[in-house]
Amino acid sequence: xxxxxxxxxxxxxIGNSDDPADIDVSKKDFMIVDxxxxxxxPVRKFVVELPLRDAAARNIGEIVVVYENPHHGTKAESHYExxxxxxxxxxxxxxxxxxxxxxxxxxxxx
Length: 110
Prior knowledge:
The protein is of the alpha+beta class. It has a domain at 36-104. The chain has helices spanning 20-28, 77-98, 102-105; strands at residues 32-34, 45-53, 59-68. It has a three-stranded antiparallel β-sheet with strand order 1-2-3. The longest helix has 22 residues, at 77-98. The termini are far apart.
């Protein structure tokens, strides 16, 4: 089964095939936390990849939440990473409550 990115803040990536890690997050029900993302970017990123579920707790895809982490390498870094992690989980939980079904994910908003 091929899956594709259908939304995001990088328009040039929309429609691209998912990579194996994305598929694993969605199908195997685990998350990836990468505090080192963007080692070549001027601003480091903290990335959390989570399975996206519907209101009945069925896996229907993946959500990737990315935070800029300007505190990389500082004493405050672990404090911010903990906050980023909890915020990503809360965001995903809020989405799940609003997605009644997989088909509902693609329905028009009311």
